[in-house]
Amino acid sequence: MFSLWKSPKIQCLAFESGLLYFQSESPLKPLKSYQIQAEVPQDGPPLKVKIPFKVTEEIPSTPLWRNRAEQLFHNACRHLYAALVESPATADSLAQLLDPQPQAQELRRAPRAEKRLRATSHQLPGYRGTVIDLSVTGLGMLVEKAVPQGSQLEFAIDFEEQRSRPLDLRGRVCWCRPEQGTGYRIGIEFVGLSQQQSWELRQVLERLLKAEPGVISDSNFLRG
User: Fold this and answer.
1) Tens of pLDDT along 176-188?
2) What are the structural domain ranges in the chain?
3) How do 138-143 and 117-120 pair as beta strands?
4) CB under 8 Å to 11, separation ≥6 — which residues?
5) What is the pLDDT of residues 88-135, one digit of tens each?
6) Whole-angstrom distance, CA of residue 133 vs CA of residue 141
7) What is the pLDDT of residue 106?
8) Residues 197 and 204 sit within 8 Å (Cβ to Cβ)
9) More confident residue, 166 or 106
10) Tens digit of pLDDT for each residue in 138-148?
11) What pTM value is reported for the model?
């Protein structure tokens, strides 16, 4: 599958859930398919490959991404993108060669509860979403339509028997990808929570984990 190409145009930084994260010296068009020359990090000189993919979006460059780029390639380009890899064989190879995105690695450190809960917000498509996993640092949610990465959302979660009234929370969308048959799946990192909100979230999460101990996970939060 892999072969040598001259003048690589992108540098691959991460691969997760079918999405390739990479940096490019030149701007690319979202929703356009490319077959592009790339560098993939490995021990020794980077591996030069040709990869077919479809750009999904340009994503903001955070300190975690800049550190990843510096560690792998000793530079940080201007443009950072996510792209859907169109070849299953290429996707399998990239999954073996690249680590997941750094934001997801940070968020996975906390235990999560896997439980479907109703979320409501005037900022969500259709004014509602379905929480599918939850941690003190963030959550995964199913929504009807795509939500732009980096969006700040305010929403309320109905914890049913675990809490008498919905809990108001705030978070930032870390990623958004299509989910077959169910619309889109988004990963949200909590931001700007007050001490009271954080305390209430921890209390209800502890009750969820005790009520359903079989759904605790320590390593897959927001993996998708």
Assistant:
1) 888 877 799 999 9
2) 10-99, 106-217
3) unpaired
4) 22, 23, 24, 38, 39, 41, 46, 69, 72, 73, 75, 77
5) 888 888 988 998 877 655 545 567 788 899 999 999 999 999 999 888
6) 7
7) 52
8) no
9) 166
10) 899 999 999 99
11) 0.51
Question: CATH assignment of 106-217, given 1.10.287.3510, 3.40.50.920, 3.90.1640.10, 2.40.10.220?
Answer: 2.40.10.220
Rounded Cα distance, 180 and 156, in Å: 25
Distance of alpha carbon 180 from alpha carbon 118, whole angstroms:
20
Encoding tokens for residue 169?
């929370």
Phi, psi angle pair for 26, to nearest 5°: -110, 150
- The residue-averaged pLDDT of 39-61 equals 88
Q: For residue 36, what are the contacts with CB-CB under 8 A and spacing of at least 6?
A: 9, 10, 50, 51, 53
The architecture (CATH level 2) of 10-99 comes to Beta Barrel (2.40)
Average pLDDT value over all residues in the chain: 83
Q: How far is CA 108 from CA 74, 127, 175, 222, in A?
A: 26, 27, 14, 7
What is the DSSP annotation of the chain? -----SS--EEEEEEETTEEEEEESS---TT-EEEEEEEE--SSSPEEEEEEEEEEEE----HHHHHHHHHHHS---SEEEEEEE--HHHHHHHHHHSPPPHHHHHHTTS-EE---EEEE-TTSGGGEEEEEEE-SSEEEEEESS---TT-EEEEEEE-GGG-SS-EEEEEEEEEEEEETTTEEEEEEEE-S--HHHHHHHHHHHHHHHHH-GGGEESS-TT--
């992108």: which residue's tokens? 10
